[in-house]
Amino acid sequence: MDREHSGRNLTQQLVHTLGESIASGRYQPGDGLPSEASLCEEYGISRSATREAIKMLTAKGLITSRPRQGIRVQVRARWNLFDPDVLGWILRASPTLEMLREFMQLRTAIEKEAAALAAAEQDREGIAAISDALQRMKVAEEGLGDPVEADIAFHINILNATNNPFYIQLGSFIETALRVSIRYTNRIKGVETASYANHKHLYDAIERGDAAGASSASAAMQSEALALIESRLSSRQSPVEVAVV
Amino acid sequence: MDREHSGRNLTQQLVHTLGESIASGRYQPGDGLPSEASLCEEYGISRSATREAIKMLTAKGLITSRPRQGIRVQVRARWNLFDPDVLGWILRASPTLEMLREFMQLRTAIEKEAAALAAAEQDREGIAAISDALQRMKVAEEGLGDPVEADIAFHINILNATNNPFYIQLGSFIETALRVSIRYTNRIKGVETASYANHKHLYDAIERGDAAGASSASAAMQSEALALIESRLSSRQSPVEVAVV
DNA sequence: TTTATATCAATTATCTGACAAATGGCTGGC
DNA sequence: GCCAGCCATTTGTCAGATAATTGATATAAA
Question: Assign residue A9 a region: left if phi > 0, alpha if psi is -120 to 50, beta otherwise?
Fold first, then answer.
């Protein structure tokens, strides 16, 4: 079993190994994976552990398994893209600019509306949490603390402040995507340091209950980033300085 | 084991039974579920089948299980709300107006942007599929075919026409939510028959590549429904005539 | 008393080997 | 050529045993 997955139990290791293989396209949708028996032998583990791994991947929508037919990769539309594991495997397998753009296209829609909802909701605790994160961003500009963590927290806290469970759940999705993106794109200082002012602008709108203002502030912030990605895409540059917003 | 879950294999039955129990709040987050041994006894099945069910629920984010600690319900924010099973269990457990509103709040954001993307993308096949669904809606108005299926297909096909895998994946989420909502809300004729014109309006905008027009057409359609829900919420009426758009 | 260490017990994790059930394909009869 | 029934393959389920993890408890040391 892979060295990188040690520390987890056998089932988890196999889940991640197979998950990555599938996400990377080593097994294509429609393809059959090795049978349970083969997997046992290949990874040197028992059938129970193997089956439990297969059940977990089934639960995440990556595969199906039926008697006689064996184990098959599902079509991508069935994958639970919003499962943090699945998303991580996919992003790590192919951290392309294309996918970053597709992710940003979704994020724009969600965060724009979330900002408006948060402004309308006026949940004091939730807004205080956003404020905290903003403060941490400011401090981080002066070199204290982690700017990335503060940035992520800011966006997550806006989603939380909607008090809408669907938006809240999307927090973990966005968090995963951001962390992976960050790890795989070397960021340039200029991009993120410039952003505090934008974030403050967005926060102010939410704080004063200005839904329309919050919505457009969010949209403005992200369309900048999206435009950057799209210009890189058309000029075929590497994703070096494309980063979080 | 429940009669309603027969036809599936034992593991699947237990997954659904426990999933529903958790979603309905019979086991609260933080609570411990019965141990593996107890579950085996309670449902009269072997430990393998039980463990596989537990692994599947773990994969969906509903529970964790660790030696000595046992099986515990996760906090709701960890649940994979976008997993069709999980969403179904939740919606069926408590099909409240509140949740319908929260769902619509998300749907509005997503479909609005999806309409714009579809308009910009101009995928001929994708647009043809939307047109097909629209046609089926029209025919259904005259009593031929299923209006609900056509309606759902229309919205799913817009998501597909974005060619963005994230939006496409949300299709199965929205589909599940719509089906459950429909099953649990008795719809009034007047609401859905009025909607063909709106849908046509949205389609036309997409077809001619008018992203802004598509976006606002979608928003208009859904804000109507959302307003209806919110008025019902404030007047505490039952969700009888709130329906799909 | 406080702190560190060893032991214990409850629970999940894994292994083994067997049998049951489902199902795609083959074979033989018509 | 078509259909029924058999067969082999693969997953589904069962039973029972042992290993690993870990919170709690008891014990020993400072």
Answer: beta
Q: pLDDT, tens digit, for every residue of A201-227?
A: 999 999 999 999 999 999 998 888 788
> Is residue A240 pLDDT above 90, yes or no?
no
d(CA A85, CA A180): 11
Residues forming a β-bridge with A73 = A63
CA A17 – CA A3 distance, rounded (Å): 10
Q: Residue B79 carries which DSSP code? A: S
The question of ipTM being above 0.85 is answered as yes
Pick out residues whose CB falls under 7 Å from strand D: A 35-37, 47-48, 51, 54, 65-71; B 9-11, 44-49, 52, 66-69
Give the residue range(s) of CATH 1.10.10.10 domains in chain A: 3-78
CATH homologous superfamily for the domain B95-234: GntR ligand-binding domain-like (1.20.120.530)
CATH 1.10.10.10 is right for the domain spanning A3-78: yes
Q: What angle do CA A82, A169, B72 make, to 5 degrees?
A: 95
Q: pLDDT tens-digit profile of B173-227?
A: 999 888 877 766 545 444 555 578 889 999 999 999 999 999 999 999 888 878 8
Q: Is the pLDDT of residue A65 over 50?
A: yes
Q: Would you say B174 and B156 are in contact if contact means Cβ atoms under 8 Å apart?
A: yes
With an 8 Å Cβ cutoff, are B166 and A105 in contact? yes
- Residue A202: CB atoms within 10 Å: 28
Gap between the Cα atoms of A176 and B180, Å rounded: 29
